[in-house]
């Protein structure tokens, strides 16, 4: 699939998810993951976006363990690709924290949210809107 096609598939999946049509969104996000399977071992920006979106969908569908596993993969990929203080890595920290909170893993969630907050304040400054977790 061409990258533009994959972006369109991603956008459609996000629209379906936002409309509450979770089961309809799932095959489109699975298609994105299948298209990026070779890249998951060597993370690429778009593949990590697709993986993060799929993880979020899994959480919305109540598949919390799968969501946690996928969010952890995204965080590892972001750390590898961009480093610990990149804004995308910090968002990945926050997303994993949300997944952990749902699963009553509050201590680890708190640690990740604090890491994200400290990183955002370092990158953007304490008063910048992006620093609010």
Would you give an account of this structure?
It is a single chain. The protein is mostly helical. Helices cover 79% and strands 0% of the residues. It has helices at 3-18, 22-35, 37-41, 45-60, 64-82, 87-102, 106-124. Helix 1 runs antiparallel to helix 2. The chain is globular. The protein starts with a helix and ends in a 9-residue tail after the last helix. The model has no long low-confidence stretch (mean pLDDT 90).
- Which bin fits the share of residues in helices? over 70%
What is the alpha-carbon Rg in Å?
Answer: 15 Å
Shape: globular
SSE order: HHHHHHH
What oligomeric state best describes the polypeptide chains here?
single chain
Tell me briefly what this model is.
With 133 residues, the chain is mainly alpha-helical. Helix content is 79%, strand content 0%. Helix 1 packs parallel to helix 4 and helix 5 (64-82) packs antiparallel against helix 6 (87-102).
Write the layout of secondary structure elements.
Blueprint: H1 3-18, H2 22-35, H3 37-41, H4 45-60, H5 64-82, H6 87-102, H7 106-124
Helix pairs in contact: 1-2, 1-4, 2-4, 4-5, 5-6, 6-7
Short descriptors:
133 residues, mainly alpha, 79% helix, globular
